[in-house]
Every structure is written in C-alpha cells, then in structure tokens.
Amino acid sequence: MDLFAGTGAFSFEALSRGASEAVVVDCDPRAIRQLIQSAKELELSAQILTSRVNLLGEPAGAIRKLPEADAGFSLVFADAPYSEIDSVPPLLDALVAAGRLAPGAWVVIEHPATHEWRWPNQLASDADYRYGQTGISLGVYAPEKGRQ
Predict the structure, then answer these.
(1) For residue 108, which of 1, 25, 31, 23 has the smallest C-alpha distance?
(2) Among 81, 93, 108, 141, which is most buried by a count of CB atoms within 10 Å?
(3) Strand order of the sheet with strand 22-26?
(4) Quick one: how far is CA 113 from the chain centroid?
(5) 134 touches 110 (CB < 8 A)
(6) Within 13 A of 134's CA, how many CA atoms are on the CB side?
(7) Cα–Cα distance measured from residue 93 to residue 69, given in angstroms and rounded to the nearest whole number
(8) Every domain of the chain and the residues it spans
(9) What is the pLDDT of residues 109-130, one digit of tens each?
(10) What is the pTM of this model?
C-alpha cells in the first residue's frame, strides 16, 4: 500500500521487484488519473488498484474507505506532505486497529530529516536513514511487542 502516493513511484518499483499487486492512495484526482495512465503504459493495470481518499481527515474513517488485502498489507509506504507528518502515526494506529496489516509487515515512512520519528503502538523501529533533508524510517508490525 502506497499512502500519499503522488506519482506512485514506490508502487511501480515494488511491482518491478516482484510485488504481486499494489494499492495506491492519494486525494488528488489528477494524481489518480496519472497513476491509472502510468499503470496502463507500463502494462500494470491488473496489478494496481487506485483509491482516492483524503488521508488527512479522521484516521479511522479514512482507513474504512481503503481497499482491503485478504491477508493484510505486507508493505506500507507513507510519504505525507512534510507539513502533515504528525498525521501519519494516528493513521498507522488506525491501520493496526482495523486489522489491515499482516504480522511482520514492513512500514516505510518518509519524513523531514529534522523530525524525530516515533513509531505508534505495535510498530517497532528497525532502522533510520538520513539523506540530506529527507529521513526514512523503517518499522515492522510486531503486535506481540507493543510500543517500542
């Protein structure tokens, strides 16, 4: 699942590396149209499901609007607008509460390098990287570990 997908680059890359399908989520109708067009041009239309949802609203309501994966999502990428980065932890909590993550799912968060990322409950930190002004935090869904 690619939250705040924009161009969908993360999803297209994941598909090129063996992912069987991707759910791309953005609130911008132009981004959704471009994602559909790009999937068509790359002959990936059958593997991409687009969803137009405002992820900055009430988290549980936003999650209810998203497509479901039978066994839960095994990889989630979130690249929220940096000014809205604080909206991502409640969104992740809502994903967990709704049972939308597979145990052991990887979660990748892009955030400002100056922002100290803290994982919400049931998501454990695996690694943090800095690239100029960009921070990347990798976490894993570990329901048995609680807050870390």
Answers:
(1) 1
(2) 141
(3) 48-52, 22-26, 2-3, 73-78, 101-112, 134-141, 123-131
(4) 18
(5) yes
(6) 8
(7) 17
(8) 2-141
(9) 999 999 989 998 889 999 999 9
(10) 0.90
Q: What is the mean pLDDT of residues 31-49?
A: 95
Please tell me the predicted confidence (pLDDT) of residue 145. 58
Kindly provide the b/e burial profile for residues 32-43, where b requires at least 16 CB atoms within 10 angstroms of the residue's own CB.
bebbeebbeeee
pLDDT in tens, 54-68: 999 899 999 999 988
* 95: CB partners within 8 A, 6+ apart: 63, 73, 76, 101
Place of tokens 């969104």: 91
Over the range 69-100, which residues count as b (16 or more CB within 10 Å of their CB) and which as e? beebbbbbbbbbeeeebebbbebbbbbbeeeb
CA angle 62, 119, 135 (to 5 degrees): 95
Rounded CA separation 119/139 (Å): 8
